[in-house]
Amino acid sequence: MKDTKKVGAGYYNPDDCNLSDFREILDQDLAVDSVPNAAEIENNIPIYDIKALHKVFQSKELRSELMAEWAWVLRESSGAIVLRGAYQDTSAIDEATELYQKIIASEKLNSGGGADHFATAGANDRIWNSLQKLCETSPDVFLRYFANVPIQTACEAWLGPNYQMTAQVNLVHPGGEAQQAHRDYHLGFQTAEISSTYPSHVHELSPALTLQGAIAHCDMPIESGPTKLLPFSQMYLPGYAAWRREDFRETFENRYVQLSLNKGDALFFSPALFHAAGSNISTNIHRMANLLQVSSAFGRAMETIDRSKMCMLTYQIAAKHLNDKTLSFSEIKAAIAATAEGYSFPTNLDNDPPKGGLAPETQQALFIRGLENKMDKVEFESQLSLMENRKTT
Prior knowledge:
Blueprint: H1 19-26, E1 40-42, E2 45-49, H2 54-58, H3 60-76, E3 80-84, H4 91-111, E4 124-127, H5 130-137, H6 139-146, H7 149-159, E5 164-172, H8 192-195, H9 200-205, E6 210-216, E7 228-229, H10 239-242, H11 246-255, E8 266-269, E9 275-276, E10 287-295, H12 307-324, H13 329-339, H14 363-372, H15 377-392
Parallel strand pairs: 2-3
Antiparallel strand pairs: 1-2, 3-8, 4-5, 5-10, 6-8, 6-10, 7-9
Helix pairs in contact: 3-7, 4-5, 4-6, 5-6, 12-13, 12-15, 14-15
């Protein structure tokens, strides 16, 4: 693979992204002998027959070999795997589907339903935090639903043990339009401006912190709009800088692939893979998938810090230093970086959804906005409390 980073640059800029380099990376084929456990390869995506791998999951050595194969595909090859028949018994899926439909109806009645990201408003129904909501609705269905060794194996293959599971249900009705091509969490949920402030090595390491997955809750023929995937695109290192560019999105639309899924199948892919939900052009298929977003155990700080309290304690002092010019704004920003939370997640996505694929305001951004707008202590603390309530209630 070509080195797409300028020597000494240290950062990825959209203007520096090279479409020819990107296309060269896409011009690969997945060799059959490189995925010996796969039952078949379709459009460069290996498909694994879970029923045929039953003995593999029971052997520590064979399971480790399978996980190494899956990790290699996700990182160094086409970037996605399909687990055909991940659920041999789909009764738990059917029960969960019925419960999710009731949750959707209830949330629509109460609040209009969950907003989507990377898609036109109203194109689908979404349940944020479907993981906890299913558990609260029926602990028994939840337990049987996630008592799934193949899914656990896929998560461990990419993230190792002690991963953190989250999930969001997406229900796309007939006529639902496709999403725009994008990359996913973490950097995919940042604006282009914010993304460009992270050094290049963070762009390269970020995909190792998250695994994207989808569990099919119904049969998904191509006309129902299963996920559009661009094999090998996760290997383009500046991709988080490039995916918003129209020429890269046009290349995606010209070269993406789709795989039909059956109820009980699971799809996993690198968050750096260019992808998008497809258009549902069917007349009678309500395409439901439970979207898994699984995070590394390592995405946590060592200590718990009450940053809201620290913000309240320092805000007036920062305002005084800024007003008296005893500290420059740059110096105060440096202090804020050690004081306030600088990341939008985790949050309660029902109250604080990333509409348009953008992250909600952070404590740091609020702190700086307050100083710039000469917000008084009472207003700042009020807005800080509202922010915390959106995240936790």
